[in-house]
Amino acid sequence: MRPVDHFLSQLEKLERTIPPSAVDEDRLVRNFVGLCAPVTGAAAAEDLCRSILDRMRGAVPPPLQKIGFTAAFLLGEFDDTMNLDQDDWEDIRETLEDIAGEMNLETLTTLMGELLSLGKLV
C-alpha cells in the first residue's frame, strides 16, 4: 500500500467514526507534513494543511478526505476519483508559487503542468 493510500484510509475512518470535535488536528497536520514535506518543505506543507482545515471548520462531518486528496496531488498520485474545491486548488497553486524557488524544478514543472491540464491555472 502506498503511503498516501494509507493516509486516505485513515482519514476515511476518522470521517466515519470520530465526532468532528474529537479530530486531532495536530496529528493530521503532522501526518500530512510527513507525506508532503519532501515535495514542499515542512513549513509550506503545514501552512497548506492548516488552511484546508480552517475552511472545514463547522462542516459536519468535516471532509477530511480533502487533506488526503491534496497530499495525493502533491505526490503525483491524484486521480479522477478525487475531488477538491476551487479554494483547495487556489491554496495548492499559491503554495507552489510561494515555494517555487525552493522546490526541485522538475517537480514544480510537473505539478504546475498538472494544474494547467486540470484547468486550475488562470
Query: What is the chain-wise order of helices and strands?
Result: HHHHHH
Oligomer type: single chain
Structural class: mainly alpha
What's the overall average pLDDT, rounded? 91
Gap from first CA to last CA: 35 Å
Share in helix: 55-70%
Tell me how many strands there are.
0
- Please outline the major beta sheet: none
Shape: globular
The low-pLDDT segments are none
What percentage of amino acids are in beta strands? under 5%
SS field, number of helical segments: 6
The radius of gyration over CA amounts to: 14 Å
List the helices and strands and how they pair.
Blueprint: H1 3-17, H2 25-40, H3 42-56, H4 65-74, H5 86-98, H6 105-117
Describe this structure in words.
The protein is 67% helix and 0% strand. The chain is mainly alpha-helical. It is globular. The termini are far apart. The model has no long low-confidence stretch (mean pLDDT 91).
Give a short summary of the structure.
67% of the residues lie in helices and 0% in strands. The protein has six helices and no strands.
Keywords:
122 residues, mainly alpha
